[in-house]
Amino acid sequence: MKFYKTYFILFLILFAIEACIAYFLKSGFIRHTFGDFLVVIMLYCFIKSFIDIKPITTGLIVLCIAFIVEFLQLTSFLELMSLQDNKVTKIVFGSTFHVSDLLAYTLGILTTLIIEKKLNND
């Protein structure tokens, strides 16, 4: 296993942006859609910081995680885990299912894969 500093720095930058979005913005496009777009890129960078796997594999893993979390919002998962009153958990898992979130996740991963392809082919 090798540590990839560039991906980790990108992860930290995206994490800081996500934290600012969560703290300062309570509604709107940036909070509800752009944040979802960025979160999958952030998770992608986190995984790539520690594991050297193909971009498509990483992208599919992250997309599956994002979709699972989104579909869990259709259930009473947080209540079953007694986490419904935990603010951090509600921010991470969300509380309402939106198809638009699935689209934002997909576009985030597609954007990441396109950038990876361009950077690795040039």
Automatic annotation (TrEMBL):
Membrane-spanning parts: 7-24, 30-47, 59-77, 97-115
InterPro entries: DUF2809 (IPR021257)
Pfam families: DUF2809
Keyword Transcription: no
Keywords of this entry: Membrane, Transmembrane, Transmembrane helix
Keyword Ribosomal protein appears in the UniProt entry: no
Highest rank taxon of the organism: Bacteria
Coiled coil: none
Protein name: DUF2809 domain-containing protein
Organism per entry: Pontimicrobium aquaticum
